[in-house]
Amino acid sequence: MQAFPHSAYTRDQLYQVFLDWQRSSWQGIQGLRLIEAPEPGPSVGIMAMTHGNEPAGLAALDNLWQHRQQLLAGRVFLMVNNLGAGARYFKEASDLGFTAHFRFVDQDMNRMPEALHCNSYELQRVHELLPVLKQLDRVLDLHSTSAASPPMLIEMDPGQGMLNVASVPVVIRNILPHLRGRALISLCEQAEGDVIECGSHEEPGATSIAQQAAWQLLAQLNMLTDPAHTTQHPRQIYSVYRAVIFPDASYRLRRILHSFEHIPAQTLLAEGDGPPLYTESDSYIIMAPQRLQPVHPGSEFFYLASGPPPAENPFGPQKFKI
Ligand SMILES: [Zn+2]
Question: How far apart are CA 224 and CA 44, in angstroms?
């Protein structure tokens, strides 16, 4: 089976890609490149670095740009969203095992308030991007996780056609109602959207997943050829029922948790000055943090989800090497 075109990216190469995009603009909007095909078709946005410490998506932008002559139809906007946080991350992050301080400059760009009137860096950036976001028909936002995790599709709307990526075996359902703010792609108004968590931030495989996801989305839309002739792959679905947000800074987890770890109902998760926190029902841990207390107090620390019976959970800590 012939693979889609892709390459490996070192951190230095990703930094060069970032600098290329930082120097680029489209109609005065920095951090954007547009590919236009000769034939009409949908307008698609491929987004990287909505969070400044998540560089994997840059590989997808660069890969599509390198192969821009192959676009068959439509227009593809290649976007680096949080230029400010990304610049700090590449210049200042020395401990790549802990980069949470470079996630944003002033506020989380993926938790937008209802009213977009505030003078934060991220809201200014969103205002720059809005004219493009509003014209997109489809959008893919490429993220990564702090802890080791299999790649995950974060489902935005169960009613839309599901993005089918061969190496993404997990679907996280129903997370939107549990976010403290609107996901950035919710601002796209008329676009169907997907978020892919490509793996952990610094894992080389995450850049490969990002390239594959972007290519396969465009292939599904008949905007690129699909050399892999992708067929539907089996997936495991986990449905979020709660975001765990610590009430105040006194709370600590009792121990480090692992993504897709199964926790029985009524298990003590965390203690602090107020009431202890328990699991309401049998739960899977989604987007496990690597620490006992959140770096950003008041944000979602991790999520609890229902899922397959534990015996059929393919991603438990014992089965998924972390
Ligand atoms: Zn992210």
Answer: 12
